Amino acid sequence: MVTPAEFLLSATNAGHFPPEGMPEVAFLGRSNVGKSTLLNRLLGQKLAFTSSTPGRTQSVNFFRVEDRMLFVDLPGYGYAKAPKSVSRAWQEVVDAYLLQRERLALCCVLLDSRRGWMETDLQLKEWLEFHQRPYVVVATKVDKLNQKEKNASQKAIREHYPSGEIIWFSGLSGQGVKEIWQTIWKRTAR
């Protein structure tokens, strides 16, 4: 199913962010966790650029969805092979986005289900909690796990996220798309 959506703009600094109006849903995660794949699956079309090279998203990308909300694809963190000065600039623009946007309704924190929480993921989680930003955890690439591995992954994720919502997502099968949309609608309907 295709959701009416369009690419709005890319921002490399806070001065380029669009004016606030509609609720916003931000997608955050390590480089190569599958943010673009998730966005494209949710929208039913290829709007977000996917690449096998980690760290390709180097700006904050805004997408208008159904003229009701904005999806915001934030640069990945962690693995990206970029000069430290570029990585610092990405971090500054991400921090500015997360701190300044009053219409930010939900952050989808993507974790690779095969890897679980990594140090940078835990730092992001603590930052979101400290700044009281609502978030949900989306465990990606679940199609690459057998049932035993999925059970172990769930246990490992729960260790640092005991009672929060975890949505299991597969870019191949579309598992989790319905649940992610339900969570987004609940958070943006307020």
Helix-strand string: EEHEEHEHEHEH
Taking pLDDT < 50 over at least 5 consecutive residues as the criterion, the unreliable ranges are 52-56
Number of helices: 5
Q: How are the strands of the biggest sheet laid out side by side? A: 1-3-4-2-5-6-7
Largest sheet: 7 strands, mixed
Q: How does the overall form come out from the CA principal axes?
A: globular
**Average pLDDT rating:** 89
Count of DSSP strands = 7
Cα-based radius of gyration, to the nearest Å: 16 Å
Report, as a whole number of angstroms, the end-to-end distance: 25 Å
Give structural notes:
The protein has helices at 35-43, 84-100, 119-130, 147-160, 177-188, and strands at 5-11, 24-29, 60-65, 69-73, 104-112, 135-140, 166-168. With 190 residues, the protein is α/β, with parallel strands linked by helices.
Observed structural traits:
about 190 residues, alpha/beta, seven-stranded mixed β-sheet, 7 strands, about 35% helix
Brief account:
This protein has 190 residues and is an alpha/beta fold. The chain has five helices and seven strands. Helix 4 (147-160) links the parallel strand 6 and strand 7 (166-168).
Fold blueprint:
Blueprint: E1 5-11, E2 24-29, H1 35-43, E3 60-65, E4 69-73, H2 84-100, E5 104-112, H3 119-130, E6 135-140, H4 147-160, E7 166-168, H5 177-188
Parallel strand pairs: 2-4, 2-5, 5-6, 6-7
Antiparallel strand pairs: 1-3, 3-4
